Model the fold of this input.
Amino acid sequence: MKKKVGILGGTFDPPHLGHLIIANEVLHRLQLDEIQFMPNQEPPHKERESHTTNRDRIRMLELAIQGNPFFSIEKIELERKGRSYTYDTIKMLVEQNPDDEYYFIIGADMVEYLPYWKEIDELMKMINFVGVNRPNYQLETPYPIIQIEVPFIEISSSMIRKRNKNGETINYLLPYGVIHYIEENQLYES
Done:
């Protein structure tokens, strides 16, 4: 049976309410069957700043999405070594699930960067890109993308890591289970 699957990639280090709001908005606006959160190994466009393990990031994602039957985790990029290029990942997913229709969710900051993506023209034939608004970025590109307006939530994983390191509160920025996991495992402390 054909499924409409949204994919939200990222480091999720840690996953926060902004990620969940984006996923929920796209799920409902496009009437998708599910959203798969796809943690990446080594994103080509930035270096990871944190020393959390893949196991930590998966566990935090599990805690963040628990109770939502439309959210799941796709670990395909964690199972590969080296840089994670969307083209390679999507090619594998489409081969594994040829009946599924994929919607790849990106922020407006990545929409501007689309012309530089590996094999972008081939990628455009395999998936639908969904661009979500972000403060200070435009959703303008020569490529066909589905634009979704989401509430502006200015939360970032780097801000949460910095606040935690400085002993500041991170309450209400992420699900309680994720906060508890961070505290219990002393993640992002100085």
The mean pLDDT is 91.
